[in-house]
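Lab manual, section 2.4: Encoding a predicted structure.

Procedure: take the sequence of the chain (400 residues), apply the prediction step described in section 2.3, and record the output as structure tokens. A sample record is shown.
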Amino acid sequence: MENIKKSHLFNASCVALVVTALTFATRAGMIDPWREEFNLTAEQVGWIIGTAFWGFTVAMVLGGPLVDIVGMKRIIYVAFICHVAGILLTIFATGFSSLFISTLLIGIANGSVEAATNPLIAGMHTDDKTKKLNQFHVWFPGGIVIGGLMVFALEALGYGWRLQMAAMLIPTVLYGFMFLGLKFPQTERVSAGYTYKDMLKAVVSPLFLFMAACMIMTAATELGSNQWMTSLLEDVMKSEGIHSILLLVWISGIMAVGRSVAGPIVHRFSPSGVLLGSAIFSGIGLLLLSYAGGYWSFGAAAVFAVGITYFWPTMLGFVNENIPKSGALGFAIMGGIGFLGGAIAQPVLGRIYDIKFEALNNSLAAGSATLRTVIVLTVILTIAFSYLYFRRRSQKTNEA
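Recorded output:
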């Protein structure tokens, strides 16, 4: 990879991922302000924030196949333009429609970042993909920590959600500048000599389809729960005088630390073993969160955080290592279908909350009941990943 500055490309990719995380973190703190200012129901807000996930899915599905054709750099340009446009439109939003469109643009930007950077990093680090993808994806929870603390600080100073959104322009301009002038490598598929037909065959293989189905559920568990966490547990945290955004910061901080030390963990337990453990811890964490109150919520949240830490990057790494011919399209489909799961989860959780609140007439009880519905996904995932884990062990035993 002559003239390819790997560290520069990796660092710029991390800043771009921080921006996608900031959009996630700030949206979590904007659910209630949007409901109040624009007189929206929880379901309507669910459709708005879900639009970011739909936009992500569209960008991944369309951008993924185009990465090999137009190059990763052009996809990054699309991300930058849509980030700037989406942030500005959100700042000047006047209601449901304008928030819907601006959030869609931000979703397209976020999806374009993932469509370009995942194959970029896997292609630059062919010998330790899962480790490097985990280290790269440190900056999603890391960015949420930054965003959550920013929301907390600006609210404490009396600044509203519009200024919080405007602050995201700073890292957006930064990553645009960092990528400027850098030379990008070819994708791994092109370098390895795999044909486009090979890639298409790979993404309809039984293992790929199995992992894609699981990706919907792992993403819905992580992104659905985290996006609504601040709102659903607001009354629980307020009882102790704690801002609920700090719970999201806590979860994301644990995730960032966990992903930064992913290498030895993945090596010790294998990717399939890590995924099985993640499903189990996620379910236990959600159950504990639905019953915990006040400071005890942080202990429950820690268990949940351990569970979801390795879901996303390990799913991507597992697929790329075990189905290498899937290439950039495989990354795109996995990421796109993951955010599809997140998109579906948003209005569904909003609707469940509306129904529970109407039935129970209590915000605290409605929030806890809504979280418990997500546990069903973790049960299904535990069964699916148990099958994957023991099947992989059996295959390795037979090969030996």
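Check your result against the sample. The chain has a mean pLDDT of 85.
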